[in-house]
Amino acid sequence: MDLEMVMKELEALGKERTKKIYLSNGAHEPLFGVATGAMKPIFRKIKRNQPLAEQLYATGNYDAMYFAGVIADPTVMTEADFERWIDGAYFYMLSDYVVAVTLAETDIAQEVSDKWIASDIELKMSAGWSCYCWLLGNRPDSEFSEGKIAEMLELVKNTIHDAPERTKYSMNNFIYTVGVSYLPLHDKAVEIAKEVGPVEVGRGSAKSKFLNASPNIQKAVDKEQLGFKRKYVRC
Q1: What confidence tens digit (pLDDT) does each residue in 31-88 have?
Q2: What CDD domains does the database record attribute to this sequence (predicted)?
Q3: Other residues' Cβ atoms within 10 Å of the Cβ of residue 23
Q4: How far apart are the first and last CA of the chain?
C-alpha cells in the first residue's frame, strides 16, 4: 500500500464522534477521527514500513501521524528521526503515545529521553518522562540503574508542582510506574508519592484537576499487581 491508499482507507474509517473527542483533547485539522483499534486491519496488511511511516507522519494529519507510529520500524530510526518526530508532535497524544512509545523500542531510549526531560520544552519533557514509563513497564528491572531512577524520583518530587501542565501528568505517571513496575524502588516511590501529594493541573477554562499517584499505587498493591510488565509496548 502506498501513501494515497492508506490515507483513503483512514478517511473511510473516520467517525465524526471520534473526531470531536480528538479535537477536544488537543488535536486539530486535518484529521479523520479514526479509532485506534480500527487501524489494526490496515497494519496487518502493511506490518512495519518506515519509509511509509515517514510519509504519513509528514502529512500533519493526526490519524496518519498516529498510524505512522503503528507501522514505524524503531530499529532503523536515529536520534535525528526522533527529534524530527517530537518537533512535529503538537499535542500530548502524539508526544506521549506515538513518539515516546516508538522511542521506547530502541536502544537509545534512555539517552534521548534524558535530553528531552532536561529541555524545558513541555511536550519534549512529557515525552521523555512518558518514555521511561513505557520502558519501566516493559523491560526487566535489571536494565535500569537503581541510582538513576532514584535520582529521577527526587527530581519529580522537587519540580512537579512547578512543571508545565502536560509534563505534570507524565511525571505523576512516572512515580506510579516506578511504584508498580520497578520493584527495587517500590518503597521509595510510595514515600515520594506521599510527599508530593495531590498535583493540580489546569485545563484551560475548565475546572482544575488533581493528580495523585499514592492511591493508585495502593490500588495496584491491593490487586497484587506489583512487578507488572506489559509484553509489548506497542499494540
Answers
A1: 999 999 999 999 999 999 999 999 999 999 999 999 999 999 999 999 999 999 999 9
A2: AlkD_like (cd06561)
A3: 14
A4: 21
